[in-house]
Design a protein that fits this description.
Strand content: 5-15%
Structural class: alpha+beta
Helix content: 40-55%
Oligomer: single chain
Shape: elongated
Length: 533
């Protein structure tokens, strides 16, 4: 036991412990990868059994150290190569590592499982254990042969192996969890095993490769992967600051199974952008409806309502015949009933058939809202209400119509559940009405001046027409915002790769716009903006 007082022995022990841990990392990584193929309740058992077998195998190999040393004696020669049992074992072990690492990489990169159709997602415990035993034999032999040349005392070798294995057992579970949670690390570790396999094959053929080169390459790769993991961590933190609605939209795109579309949708904020990002396997109507739902929360109620000037209302001061004819001529089931001045003096809302019944029975419409009258109180909502909140208000109030008011109490327009549906599924024109966007040729349309910009984005495939601050919501507002002047017939505005020409006006309101896609523009809209008369 004189060696206990020798400082060189203790230094050798410490060095050997560190070396055994380093040499055992590749074994531990592969055990972690193999254990990940088992059901969760069997992974810890496989990990402990695998490392315990490695410990006993290395202790057993140490007891026959003399035989291991003699394994370097040449056994036979082939062509220019001379092989010993050590060379044969290293060569076979290296080829096994190359085969196993290549197979695992193929599975990870291509998503192909080794097992047949009967596999239910997990490998059998016995199969994984056999692979672990084979790996233990390969890695243990390389480790022990390396250790034999470092120290002279068998006891020191055994102590170093036991201490190193204790450290590996303690670190195995955290390492396994880390490997399972980071797929790129698994690919990196499998690449390491490929390098180690090539190294063993080279040594088996008599080409000595300094371990320093191998460890330097592994260390550099680990440094690069560290930066990659740091980037991913910062990206996760950044995504956590993204609104829940946007993250949900991306998740829906992932479920639809289009990675390219998902990448396009990362920066998508408009309905047209998200619709363009959806996979082509879905029809245009399906894609527009999905994108309509995803963008509904960000839309202002002003973008879906019927403007005040287009609202049909009944003036209660009119004579009976005028009111009756107006109700018959208009294809509406509900009417706002107002005083002479209009929507700002609304009395209530009535159904067309009930109002006609009143006119026939009493010659007039009730001027008061009572439980006995045909009129119901008008539902008035602020212009700041979101479309999602408006839907809930309409549902709870059992109303079929809501009037939108600004901060001064002025009625801006009217919105119905049909308007919400049109925001999702597209336009449903009434009898006698035309579509707001009518194609008249390739890349050529005639558009209503009051068309909603979200609808126009979908019809033309041009994103970012609607402003983020809801400053305006119609094509007329877009033209006025870019021309900076009152509209006149023949006025031209070029924006987002589109040429917009004012065709007709009623007083100062644009009623018709000729829209053409510029030759240099595309669906993304990158043409320069300009305005002219």
């Amino acid at each position: 036991m004189e060696w206990l007082s020798d400082p060189a022995v203790w230094a050798g022990l410490l060095t050997l412990v560190v070396l055994e841990i380093v040499l055992g990392i590749d074994n531990l990584v592969f055990i972690a990868i193999l254990a990940d193929k088992l059901p969760p309740h069997q992974r810890d058992k496989a990990r402990v059994v695998g490392l315990t077998l490695a410990l006993f195998m290395r202790l057993g190999l140490l007891t026959v150290m003399a035989q291991l040393i003699r394994l370097t004696t040449p056994v036979f020669s082939f062509w220019l190569f001379t092989f010993s049992w050590r060379d044969i074992i290293l060569l076979v072990g290296g080829l096994f590592l190359l085969w196993k690492a290549t197979t695992e990489l193929h599975e990870r990169l291509e998503g192909v499982e080794h097992a047949g159709p009967a596999r239910k997602g997990y490998a059998s415990f016995s199969l994984v254990l056999v692979q672990i035993v084979i790996l233990d034999a390969v890695f243990s032999l390389d480790s022990i042969i390396t250790a034999v040349g470092m120290v002279e005392h068998l006891e020191v070798m055994m102590i170093a192996v036991v201490l190193a294995m204790i450290v590996m057992l303690a670190a195995s579970k955290p390492l396994t969890r880390f490997v399972s949670a980071h797929p790129t690390v698994v690919v990196l570790c499998l690449s390491f095993l490929l390098m180690i396999g090539f190294s063993l094959v080279a040594e088996g053929l008599g080409f000595h490769l300094p371990k320093g080169y191998l460890y330097a390459a592994i260390g550099f790769s680990i440094l690069i992967e560290f930066f990659n993991q740091l980037r991913q961590r910062n990206q996760i933190k950044s995504e956590a600051r993204v609104p829940m609605r946007d993250r949900t939209a991306r998740a829906v795109l992932r479920l639809l199974g289009d990675r390219e579309g998902l990448q396009q949708a990362e920066g998508a904020s408009t309905q047209a952008q998200i619709a363009a990002a959806l996979p082509a396997a879905f029809g245009p109507e399906e894609r527009n409806m999905v994108s309509g739902v995803l963008t509904l929360a960000e839309r202002s109620v002003l973008s879906i309502m019927t403007p005040r000037n287009d609202v049909d209302w009944l003036d209660i001061t009119q004579d009976t015949e005028t009111l009756r004819q107006q109700i018959i001529d208009q294809p509406h089931g509900l009417f706002p009933v107002c005083e002479r001045t209009g929507l700002d003096q609304i009395i209530g809302v009535g159904r067309a058939k009930d109002l006609l019944a009143d006119l026939v029975a009493h010659g007039q419409i009730s001027r008061k809202v009572t439980p006995e009258s045909t009129l119901r109180p008008a539902l008035i909502v602020p212009e700041t209400i979101s479309v999602i909140r408006l839907t809930e208000v309409l549902r709870q109030s059992r109303g079929h119509m809501a009037l939108v008011s600004d901060e001064y109490g002025t009625i801006l327009g009217l919105v119905t559940p049909m308007d919400v549906l049109e925001a999702i599924a597209g336009e449903f024109p009434d009898v006698g009405e035309n579509l707001s966007v009518q194609p008249i040729g390739p890349d050529h349309w005639v558009v209503d001046g009051l068309v909603d910009l979200h609808t126009l984005e979908l019809a033309l495939g041009v994103p970012d027409l609607a402003p983020a601050d809801d400053e305006y919501s119609t094509l007329t507002g877009l033209i006025l915002a870019h021309s900076k002047q009152l509209p006149v017939a023949g006025q031209v505005v070029e924006i987002q790769g589109l040429r917009l020409e004012v065709m007709a006006l009623e007083e100062r309101r644009i009623t018709s716009v000729d829209v053409k896609r510029l030759a240099g523009g595309d669906a993304a809209g990158h043409a320069p903006e300009s305005a002219s008369n």
